[in-house]
Amino acid sequence: MTGISGLPSQGAEDPHVEDPRVEDHDIAGIAGNPIPHLDGNAAAGPLWELFRIDIIAAIGRCKNCGAVRVFGEAAVYADAPGIVVRCSSCDGVLLRLVETPTSYWLDVSGLSYLQIDREG
Ligand SMILES: [Zn+2]
To answer: What's the CA-to-centroid distance between 39 and ligand 1, angstroms?
Structure first.
């Protein structure tokens, strides 16, 4: 019962039960918005698994356009093989995260820096 034909069947091993927003109907998109995205909160869970930091409140500088924004304002595309986080100012790729059964692949080359609050 799926309208998505191009995706491999990989959902079973994904422990994303805490985030009900990441579901097939979000990924499939709607007419006029073929590549739907979520806000920065969608990247919070996977990045928490890696770093045990609250990435949502972190401030990042886009290497492409120089915009300095709170991570939670970024656009998260979760329908790629992994997660792609784009700048909400210029749409440049800030961060990519792909999980395999044995490792994480994290590309942060689109960020000049991340400023992470030590509190909390
Ligand atoms: Zn930018």
So the answer is: 15
Kindly give the distance from the C-alpha atom of residue 113 to the centroid of ligand 1, in angstroms, as a whole number. 13
| Ligand 1 centroid – CA 117 distance (Å) | 21
Q: Going residue by residue through the chain, which has 120 residues, state the pLDDT in tens, using 9 for 90 and above.
A: 444 454 444 444 555 444 444 444 444 445 565 678 888 888 888 888 888 888 889 999 999 999 999 999 999 998 778 899 999 999 999 999 998 999 999 999 999 999 998 875
| Prediction pTM value | 0.67
Q: Residue 36 Cα, ligand 1 centroid: separation in angstroms? A: 18
Residue 78 CA, ligand 1 centroid: distance in Å:
19
Residue 97: count of CB within 10 angstroms of its CB: 20
